[in-house]
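ok, trying the design again with the full structure, not the truncated one.
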């Protein structure tokens, strides 16, 4: 059985170290795990309950929900902006949290990882994302974490996919996801 992991990247910048971390995760998925990095978070309008009705849901939001419905687990890769997660991730969580009680995120195993310039690797942002995912109904795996500090220095000349320590860490994250997803 293959575990499909939908990956949402909180940075929209092409050269983002978090985008690179998501790429490293996809490239180092163990056998039986497929990582799909979602493209298009920037196209999803801010959540508005007035447009979240049948026949009016924006196409980009429908695509996100469809991708989540096709996945077994959710992986958020988050930088830290002003001590919290980026708005695009929060907005994605908002869209995935509806309809309340029967959302695409309901009971879905979810993990948050990331890298940031600071010495703690974005743990505040990751904690905020975990909180929002929990409230959205996801099954947040609190013991599966990865925070990589000093990203600008560490990955200045080395892509995360070429960092042996990171490769091992992302493989362990995906194994943790697979173990829980297999039970669902």
């Amino acid at each position: 059985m293959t575990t499909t992991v939908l990956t949402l990247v909180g940075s929209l910048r092409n050269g983002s170290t978090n985008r690179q971390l998501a790429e490293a995760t996809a490239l180092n998925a163990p056998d039986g795990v497929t990582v799909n990095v979602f493209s298009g978070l920037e196209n999803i309008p801010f959540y508005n309950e007035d447009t979240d009705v049948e026949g009016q849901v924006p196409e980009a939001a429908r695509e996100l929900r469809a991708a989540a419905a096709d996945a077994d687990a959710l992986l958020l890769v988050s930088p830290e902006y002003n001590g919290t997660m980026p708005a695009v991730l929060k907005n994605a969580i908002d869209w995935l949290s509806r309809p309340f009680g029967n959302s695409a995120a309901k009971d879905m195993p979810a993990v948050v990882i990331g890298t940031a310039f600071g010495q703690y690797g974005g743990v505040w942002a990751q904690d905020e994302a975990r909180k929002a995912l929990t409230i959205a109904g996801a099954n947040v795996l609190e013991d599966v974490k990865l925070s990589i500090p000093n990203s600008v220095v560490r990955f200045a000349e080395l892509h995360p996919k070429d960092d042996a320590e990171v490769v091992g860490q992302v493989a362990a994250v995906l194994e943790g996801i697979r173990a829980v997803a297999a039970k669902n």
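Keeping the full-length input from now on. The first helix runs from residue 17 to 27.
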